[in-house]
Design goal:
The structure is a homodimer. The first copy, chain A, has about 600 residues and is α/β, with parallel strands linked by helices. Chain A contains 19 helices and 19 strands. Chain A: This is Beta-hexosaminidase.
Amino acid sequence: MISTATPTKPKQKKAIEMRICEGKKSMFQVFVLPIPKFAIILCLTLIFPPPAASLKSAVNVWPKPRLVSWPRPLAKFLSANFTIDSSYHQHLTPAINRYLGLVRTEHYHPLITPFVIVSASAPPLQTLSINVIDLAVPLQHVANETYSLSISEAGETAYLTAETAWGAMRGLETFSQLVWGNPPAVPVGLYIWDAPLFAHRGIMLDTSRNYYRVEDILRTIEAMSANKLNVFHWHITDSHSFPLMVPSEPELAAKGSYGPDMIYSPSDVAKIVQFGMEHGVRVLPEIDSPGHTGSWAEAYPEIVACANMFWLPGSNGADQLAAEPGTGHLNPLNQKTYEVLKNVIRDASNMFTETFYHGGADEIIPGCWKADPTIRSFLSNGGTLSQLLEKFINSTLPYIISLNRTVVYWEDVLLNDVVKVDSSFLPREHTILQTWNNGSNNTKKIVEAGYRTIVSSSEFYYLDCGHRDFLGNDSRYDPQTTGQDSKEGASWCDPFKTWQTIYNYDITFGLSEDEAKLVIGGEVALWSEQADPTVLDGRLWPRTSAMAETLWSGNRNEAGRKRSGEATDRLNEWRYRMVSRGVKAEPIQPLWCIRNPGMCNAVQSF
Amino acid sequence: MVSIVSQFSTTKLKEEMRICLSKFAIIICLTLIFPPPTLSLKSAVNVWPKPRLVSWPKPLARFLSANFTIDSPYHQHLAPAVTRYLALIRTEHYHPLITPSVNVSTSAPPLQTLFINITDLAAPLQHGVNETYSLSISEVGETAYLIAETAWGAMRGLETFSQLVWGDPSAIPVGLYIWDAPLFAHRGIMLDTSRNYYEVEDILRTIEAMSANKVNVFHWHITDSHSFPLMVPSEPELAAKGSYGPDMIYSPSDVAKIVQFGLEHGVRILPEIDSPGHTGSWAEAYPEIVACANMFWLPPGSDWADRLASEPGTGHLNPLNQKTYKVLENVIRDVSNLFPETFYHGGADEIIPGCWKADPTIQSFLSNGGTLGQLLEKFINSTLPYIISLNRTVVYWEDVLLDDVVKVDPSFLPREHTILQTWNNDSNNTKKIVQAGYQTIVSSSEFYYLDCGHGDFLGNDSLYDPQTTGRDPKDGKSWCDPFKAWQTIYNYDITFGLSEDEAKLVLGGEVALWSEQADPTVLDGKLWPRTSAMAETLWSGNRDEGGRKRSAEATDRLNEWRYRMVSRGVKAEPIQPLWCIRNPGMCNASPFS
């Protein structure tokens, strides 16, 4: 029996299988066949369309691997002295120790007992032997994450082969999810080949509107690694607080944070970056500017326009000073702005090894800049708001590039209706635009303009939505008969994004094959107006797992049909396993549904 | 400075007058003449739910003695509460997010004692028990006084006292007088423990948080079609076979622990054994008494009208089988032994015609001219008198009277023994129920359902396939979308549209957490602080002394209270950025409140 998880388009899938069988280059990764004889059997068996792996299978890895061969439902026990063999690598070695501890002690009991024969006579598995082809590859965008895992029926050693240490971490996670029960058992006669469809798979977390402790961030990174996500996009600062201690500009956090116990020190950052390395998760910092900078005014009021003003002074939206409470934009006309900002950028690039730097540049609100006298005089002399933004970009982007960073901006910098820059200010080789508005339409606009993009569609990937707005003194809530009218007090990005909404979104929808190549991946986003550590896990998980599978191995089965029906049962199982590992992921169904597969479907499917 | 909530009924005014005659209250009654400014968040008096009457003319406070004690007459349930509050007051050291602008006197003697006086120590914890209390803390005396009609009112006053204390060393406002009593007697949470299981500790934590919010009824929707987690001594097979597993059963000693914990927190534990619908799990032990059990909920190709259940998980007790009543009476008797609460919730919601019609004996009954309404009448008539005979008042969901298709004639539901809980069609159904002469508990799904807005939970749902409609709420939405924000809950008046006489039949309200998409991992965040919003509405109302909605001012206070709940171990969700709390008014929708 072979189960293949497939990429988004059946046409591509066939191509990939051909490449696997030829042992040549796959779509994104160089694929090196570690054990050719396995592959030959695979290529033969690919002829017969396989049944989908059921939940009763002992092979229940999330995200589903791209290719699983497990002809017979056999398993065997792990030796009490089970070990993992590998060359030393400063980040992989701690990961191995962690996984060894997990594999030995987790003893996870699946909700549905696997239908499998655990051989008591076969010798127990003694060793997982890891072979990494290039130990020197750093953790960065498009680092090769391909791995293969083979566990024979009879041998005492299983083999994990990966191009890089980071791919080995992915394989270790897969191995750990294959192990279950007490004593621990693992499926045998198994071969897995796996690699991501998209190189960039992330979570964006906003730590400005509400603060998260370092331990919350570490727990999130660990859960990301378990879901084979590889980018923690850290929206560190915003108008509400500035929680990052920047050594050259210590006043920003001293005055702009929520308090001395709510600041990330350089050693906190180092700890998070290190933890990310040991989990194969890049930590991508965002210092949002020139908008979303009200908190900077606590230390430097002179560089921030419209700070500390009521956000909506008039009766209509045209006068608004910010998209939400918390006003303030850096003033592009003040040289001090760049002095402070370059100190921040330089320190951030020293603290974060990541080669992407996120500059923000979203939601420039005309009313804010217009509230500043120097800007008003610039405008009345014929200047435009877009020229202001161009001046800002031109005064910062070259500096960021000079630090060997690729700059990520939110799409607004190019696509905003009113305040945007000419694309000549945004060199395509150094700039990535992250889309969040207008679903697949803006994705298309960005790639048509020749830019790489990261998809964070607010219609599909915003995890905070659907909780209504957070404003106080809101008379829209007064009517007694409209609790069900979604227009009253709705959050701008209603409704709640269910795991199915997220799972079914194809981030390259509507793009040509060439355009699709510019989509480097996606990120779910948790903006924290109504979130903080008390609810973090439930907001992120298991909905982020839905994106994780889509971006890793796709959301369609071998016939090209959406596999969300079958994914429901698997995601339920994975959610319970995450909970048992200490992540308070929310339930997606009654336990009854898991115990009665298919019975909770919208339509009877068997 | 005096703050009064304006929703006084005639009887409440009489109570006021009576209190004004006591020596404590003379000063208060004098100050009532002067209209007070609203208490701001900078006040050290920030009690949730807001008391009905607070007099605190000068912003003064003083410290609690290191040997502070609480002096109370002995009462078996109050005594543990006193011990608990004493420890909380001594050790909490809560630091408000906004430092109170108040002078803490270092010269005044510290407060040594809270003296509790209770008029009627024998009053049991039951519906309508008097929860009135008054609290006075003088500027100089070493003793503060808490006076209550009953032990349960004293618990409310202890909670208020604990919320007045802040800082390290502990300080408390002085020159303070509070008079307080609830507007509605029934203030509850309904929790469904059948669709997903909750540990006993989750239930206890919830009851403790309820008590801190002066919410007094834990409506425990114990069983449903998905699991039967209650060990019923006379019918042990129901849980043995119908629960999710041996580690997911509430034993009689678990129940006793929960009931006892409720008593020590002034929270009644009201059990619901939903029937005759929502009983699929009973079929594991007794397949012969359950119609349509274990079938796919929506037969392929059928209309919604032909569904077997409103959601996956089919099964209705069969009213034509005598065995049904044998089992059910055993359950009812045991439950009334396990739960001292004098209300018993019988469910009776969502009878789905297709389910009963799927049963051959019922088919033959119907083809002989019987009706579904008659079936339900037979069921009610075979169980309700038995429940009443056990000295219980029966609560049913409104469906039993108001369902379009399957309902009973009101003659089957004696008004003196029956309460109907409304959940559909907001104030319209409330009005229908009270116009029919029944008492009601309001759980409007449009306002009080805490699980809504999370999308539906069905699998294999092609509604999610379109790539351009993530924002169209019609696709895969839950039936009771949208999410009920705390403001939605806070602003709902449960007697909206009723005459004064009709309003008297509204006992109170309950928020409800159905657990298709909830379990212990997310319990606290789903319940809190949104339940606090209802708690204040039902305790002291949602309007200021000018009769205007006070939700703007409530935002800041609820923020503060939410943080205090978190510090007490309840993972209540945040309602705003911390920035909003630090910058009062700046996160409002419009600038002036």
